[in-house]
Amino acid sequence: MRQASALLEFDTPGQGFTDITAQVARWLASLGFTEGLLTLLCRHTSASLLIQENAAPEVRDDLAAWLARLAPEDARYAHDDEGPDDMPAHLRATLTGVSLQIPVIGGRMALGTWQGIYLAEHRHMPHHRQIAAHVIGE
Amino acid sequence: MRQASALLEFDTPGQGFTDITAQVARWLASLGFTEGLLTLLCRHTSASLLIQENAAPEVRDDLAAWLARLAPEDARYAHDDEGPDDMPAHLRATLTGVSLQIPVIGGRMALGTWQGIYLAEHRHMPHHRQIAAHVIGE
Amino acid sequence: MRQASALLEFDTPGQGFTDITAQVARWLASLGFTEGLLTLLCRHTSASLLIQENAAPEVRDDLAAWLARLAPEDARYAHDDEGPDDMPAHLRATLTGVSLQIPVIGGRMALGTWQGIYLAEHRHMPHHRQIAAHVIGE
Questions:
Q1: B16 — alpha (psi -120 to 50), left (phi > 0) or beta?
Q2: Do C44 and B114 touch (CB under 8 A)?
């Protein structure tokens, strides 16, 4: 049994969903694990991680509109000194979550056919984001 | 230290919550781990996993009504070619999440007394669903 | 490779967010892991775990107000025999989730600078809460 960890780096283009499946898969493949457990932790409070449909881009559009409806920018927040998109970003990150775990089976992440891993940027401006990645197994 | 993984199979009767605690516990018991970490990943984007109250069935009724209110079927979605229950299913799966981790202590999942593991089916029709399961420990 | 597990105990002062980062870090440090994976599971259905901003306290105020808006106490619930704050507590716990995973790198949890771990109490009364903790690594 062995393990590996790394800080994976991503640049987001501002609010939206960045498909990071291929980059995570490359990192995993470079380590040569056959079976194990992969963990990803987004090290931020206004960006998050989620697994969702990787085919129809409209799914991401609807997801963005839904998050904007549940945690709107035009609501009144006590914490508003970092701009109107900051507190809603914290709420949307809370709703979607910052950590993901994916079993590794047969040398690959055991995602379903239609599942992709997305880094969700909840701020309007582009940001540099870090994901702590860990894998343990054989 | 050792590990095991499997694809567990479930048939859902359509929208609702299927208690999978016993089936997961049986799989775990068959492997004989005393201490470790169990991970479950739902390999779908319109079904999800959650840990909730295993006693009063009204809790699941209220949970279903709440999800229906937060991600309604009669809203307007860009992604609607798979039917009116498809996009709300993606949203409800995002809200509840697709992966769960449970420490194994004393040969059993360290769930609380009132906690059960539920596979949440968000589509109206019955579906065949797969959960990737992984355990590591001793 | 080795592992350790424990049931960590917390007293909450009623509804709100308790920062448990230091207590979790102390437990982890006492075990001497350099690299690994930490898992926390809240063993309750009306309390939950989340990673959020550890600086501005207004963020927690806004988060509490938002949860109260999404899962209000004055809505009509089928499950109401444990009081008006019980079913909303289950819903808020479902939204935020009960398990967290954090890679351990360089002997410390790989949290971001602004991230803290919070035990979210969703009932009005103070409660005694248990978190099952597990770490695996070296």
A1: left
A2: yes
- DSSP 8-state assignment for residue C10: E
Residues of A in Cβ contact (< 8 Å) with C96: 94
- Rounded to whole angstroms, what are the CA distances from B9 to A124, B98, C2, C121, C136? 41, 15, 31, 34, 28
Q: pLDDT tens digit string along C42-83?
A: 999 999 999 999 999 999 999 999 999 999 999 999 998 889
CA distance C67 to chain A (A): 9
Q: Which two tokens stand for residue C79?
A: 């499950």
Q: For chain B, how many residues are written? A: 138
**Beta pairing partners, C5:** C134
Buried-exposed string B96-115: b where 16+ CB fall within 10 A, e elsewhere: bbbbbbbbbbeeebbbbebb
CATH architecture of C2-137: Sandwich (2.60)
Q: In B, which residues are within 8 Å of A103 by CB distance?
A: 5, 39, 41, 132-134
Pick from B44, B79, B133: CB nearest A62: B79
> Cβ–Cβ of C79/B58 closer than 8 Å?
yes
Q: What share of chain B is helix, strand, coil (3-state, %, to 5)?
A: 25, 40, 35
Give the mean pLDDT of B15-44.
98
Please give the residue of chain C at the shortest CA–CA distance from A87.
C59
This prediction has a pTM of 0.98
Is the ipTM beyond the 0.85 threshold?
yes
**Cβ contact C112–A37 (<8 Å):** no
Residue A109: CA atoms inside 13 Å, Cβ hemisphere, count?
30
Can you say whether residue C73 is alpha, beta or left, with left for phi > 0 and alpha for psi between -120 and 50 degrees?
alpha
Instruction: Give contacts of A115 with chain B, Cβ < 8 Å.
Output: 43-45, 98
Q: What is the DSSP string of B15-39?
A: SEEEE-HHHHHHHHHHHT-SSEEEE
